[in-house]
Design goal:
It is built from one helix and twelve strands; from the N terminus they run ββββββββββββα. The protein has a single domain, classed as Sandwich (Jelly Rolls), CATH 2.60.120.10. Strands 1, 3, 4, 7, 8, 9, 10 and 11 form an eight-stranded antiparallel beta sheet that branches. Strands 2-5 form a two-stranded antiparallel sheet. A two-stranded antiparallel ribbon has the order 6-12. The protein is globular. The longest helix has 9 residues. It is mostly beta strands.
């Protein structure tokens, strides 16, 4: 058994996020585990860019109301206590709904080959974000 210390919270990079988003790393697996877990906090209206994960991603909402969108136009409105599973390779984005904070645990596995598990893409447009909030 090992007790891990609380790690510093960092502001996420502007090239992958719109708005103010903060991330606290929780766990980075060491072999054979490839699990990575982080607590991600989104301010109202903040969101990720479009992105995908080689081995998929699981999001567990801990606070607030958020949105998860996919390229086909599907949008899920997510609430505290709910979990969303994003399959490997699916382009998606997630963030806080308008007017509310949203926090989630982001869980994903590193790629078996050691490469970056996340492929970052273009920002979600303001128009697409506003349409998602209307649903």
């Amino acid at each position: 058994m090992e007790l891990l210390p609380v790690r510093p919270t960092v502001k996420t990079p502007a090239q992958a996020f719109t708005g103010d988003v903060y991330m606290t790393p929780i766990y980075n697996g060491t072999g054979p585990s490839r699990l990575t877990v982080a607590l991600v906090r989104f301010t109202p209206g903040a969101r990720t860019n479009w992105h995908s994960h080689a081995v998929g991603q699981t999001l567990h909402v801990t606070e607030g109301v958020g949105l998860v969108g996919t390229r086909d136009g599907s949008v899920l409105r997510i609430h505290a206590g709910e979990t969303v599973v994003c399959p490997p390779g699916e382009d998606h984005w997630h963030g806080a709904a308008t007017g509310t904070f949203m926090s989630h645990l982001a869980m994903l596995e590193a790629r078996p080959d050691g490469g970056d598990p996340t492929t970052w893409l273009e920002p979600v447009t303001g128009e697409d974000y506003e349409q998602a909030n209307q649903r």
